[in-house]
Design goal:
Layout: E1 26-32, H1 37-54, E2 57-63, H2 65-78, E3 84-88, H3 103-112, H4 118-124, E4 134-139, E5 142-146, H5 147-152, H6 162-174, H7 192-199, H8 216-229, H9 241-249, E6 255-258, H10 261-267, H11 272-277, E7 281-284, E8 299-305, H12 312-323, H13 325-334, E9 339-340, H14 351-354, H15 364-367, H16 379-386, H17 389-399, H18 404-418
Parallel strand pairs: 1-2, 1-3
Antiparallel strand pairs: 3-8, 4-8, 4-9, 5-6, 5-7
Helix pairs in contact: 1-13, 7-8, 8-17, 17-18
Length: 421
């Protein structure tokens, strides 16, 4: 056992999992494209290690987040395609009957590495029994800001409440260094709209899966959002996931929400001007709203095996291998903090303390609420999330294309199509 073995001492009590890949097995993996080059580089090193150890040939295809979801749906419907898909949020709940039960792998890893965080259970074990897939982690939707610009706007530290958050954005606009947040159908960066809703007590559905988004709490969130939006840089209504990265690195905005990829890109840039930005970049949690508790929303990553695979044992062994410490910690490091871990024991991974600017991203999966909050996840939550109902409502209301009441009523009707009574 190598360095850090003491941290994982409980692992010796984990029950062994003996998965023997089928003879002549070949696997095809479809995963989302990297936002950080080190992610895919380290992932492919692990893939090659798996092939060397087992003899199983693995083909890895990369697609954008927006393209993985429809390709996964086609695979589920046709019964053909990649053996394993790494996807986002609760896509597994769109076609649970088409997925291979991976309870044995999930329980083995959970016992060995300190347990899966609650949100992982909610996403991938909605019935409390069978695991539909494994958690990969999450890309944290944290605040990314220019420290010098925040200080120039009169703030010695980043605000921790929504009143201060609004005041900061007004001051930044007055200084000519505005903020900006994606309001298009951005898989990752539109998640800030969940924070806006939840921080004021709004919910898409209640605990009984009743749609309750047309509410006084949602109205308060949207009214606050209108004030906030008035200080955004123009153009955010069409922003998808790459847009705020580019605007930030170009110096057009001083604050946004994002994974650690903006910092990573600046730190590793060959452009001296962009590289200089890295020293000025800081990260923070979203402020706490009137509800008085954190309401974090992050982009969750899952790993699913389709039942049609000819090589179920090889596929399960691949997922187990990739999640073991010897492979998973180097992958976390390679991704530069872009992926937060789903298993508690990886809190001690070196990446979280090797640079203090990584640390805010460490507990994303631990602290996150699933996108279907506060209801039970399933087909309805997955469909509503994939349809960007909350993001569209917020965009319509805060931009003025609809009144807050009209936007809420439209969101209520759209959600009710999924959450049928």
């Amino acid at each position: 056992m190598g360095a850090g073995a003491a941290v994982f001492a409980p692992a010796v009590h984990a029950q062994a999992l003996n998965l023997k890949p089928e003879k002549g097995a070949k696997l095809r993996v479809l995963r989302w494209s990297r936002f950080v080059q080190g992610d895919i580089d380290a992932y492919m090193v692990n893939v090659r290690k798996f092939t060397e150890k087992t003899g199983v040939e693995v083909r890895v295809d990369n697609e954008g987040w927006e393209d993985v979801r429809p390709k996964a749906a086609v695979a589920a419907n046709t019964g053909a395609g990649p053996d394993i898909i790494l996807s986002t949020n609760d896509d597994a709940n769109l076609y649970p009957e088409k997925l291979l039960d991976v309870t044995d792998v999930a329980e083995y890893l959970g016992k060995k590495y300190g347990g899966w965080f609650p949100a992982v259970h909610q996403y991938l074990r909605p019935d409390g029994k069978k695991w539909l897939g494994l958690g990969t982690g999450a890309a944290g939707s944290m605040i990314v800001y220019r420290e010098s610009m925040v200080k120039a706007a009169g703030f010695s530290s980043f605000p921790k409440d929504t009143a201060g958050f609004l005041a900061l954005h007004k001051a930044l606009k007055d200084k000519g260094t505005p903020g900006g947040y994606a309001l298009g159908n951005a898989t990752g960066d539109s998640l800030w709209t969940n924070w806006l809703l939840w921080s004021h007590g709004g919910q898409l559905v209640d605990k009984n899966n009743k749609v309750v988004i047309d509410s006084p709490e949602t109205m308060k969130a949207l009214e606050y959002g209108k004030e906030l939006y008035a200080n955004f840089i123009p153009g955010t209504l069409s922003w998808l996931d790459p847009n705020n990265n580019k605007a930030f690195l170009d110096g057009q905005i001083s604050v946004t929400n994002n994974g650690i990829s903006i910092y990573y890109a600046a730190k590793n840039s060959t452009d001296a001007k962009v590289k200089e930005l890295a020293g000025d970049i800081q990260h923070a949690s979203f402020p706490i709203g009137p509800v008085g508790v954190p309401t974090e929303s992050h982009l969750f990553f899952n790993q699913m095996i389709f039942k049609y695979t000819k090589y179920p044992q090889a596929a399960k062994e691949f997922l187990r291998f990739m999640m073991e410490r010897e492979q998973f910690e180097p992958w976390l490091t390679g991704a530069g903090g872009y992926i937060a871990h789903p298993l508690a024991a990886y809190k001690s991974a070196p990446i979280w303390t090797s640079d203090p600017k990584h640390t805010p991203y460490r507990d994303c999966v631990k602290n996150m609420r699933p996108t279907g909050y506060a209801g039970k996840l399933g087909y309805a939550s997955a469909g509503a999330g994939a349809d960007f109902i909350v993001a569209n409502m917020v965009a319509e209301a805060i931009s003025g294309s609809k009144s807050p009441k009209e936007a809420m009523e439209r969101a209520q009707k759209r959600a009710e199509r999924y959450y049928k009574v």
